[in-house]
């Protein structure tokens, strides 16, 4: 039987679900002063699933450059059996490797639920996998992360829509529209970086709207601006 990946969004608490297994969040913040980060994993099904985890550099996400450096984290346990109707915890611990202190660093937390039983007949068993954002956040960064999206600077350069992020925080863009047309997978704007995201005819008005996602996985209010090439 093929298990399909599904994402579940709850009003008060955002989780990610795969097969009968749900993960207590869609993004995780590892503060510089934290000794460890705990991730809750819950199994609502009657089956036993093997939970396999690892962390990689943040190049999985659109707009984020991949890093050749290994992620400086250890997950305990990296593989464990989660029985039906039970829950478990993952502990993420940072190693001694130094990361940048003037901005966030983004990593990808990968969690897969592997069927513990054996396939029978002509059936196929698939391990659904969720890719989740893991941010390392140094202490003392300027500004507040929830205000970072308000600081984005948009402008029109010839036919291109360009965005600059002057803050030390990553901003995730969703529901980006240019003159009413949806921009597919706008991705993220990295700290202190500039991206070109879409096209807009310079002979007409260029009206842009977008939303972002906060630390808790919730949508921020929509922002609308009219662009200029000045």
From TrEMBL:
Domain Pili assembly chaperone N-terminal: 20-141
Gene3D superfamilies according to UniProt: Immunoglobulins
InterPro entries, per the entry: Ig-like_fold, PapD-like_sf, Periplasmic_pilus_chap, Pili_assmbl_chap_C_dom_sf, Pili_assmbl_chaperone_bac, Pili_assmbl_chaperone_C, Pili_assmbl_chaperone_N
Residues in the signal sequence: 1-19
Domain Pili assembly chaperone C-terminal: 163-218
Keywords: Chaperone, Periplasm, Signal
Main localization (coarse): periplasm
Places the protein is found: Periplasm
Pfam families: PapD_C (PF02753), PapD_N (PF00345)
Family according to the record: Belongs to the periplasmic pilus chaperone family.
Protein name: Fimbria/pilus periplasmic chaperone
Lineage: Bacteria, Pseudomonadati, Pseudomonadota, Gammaproteobacteria, Enterobacterales
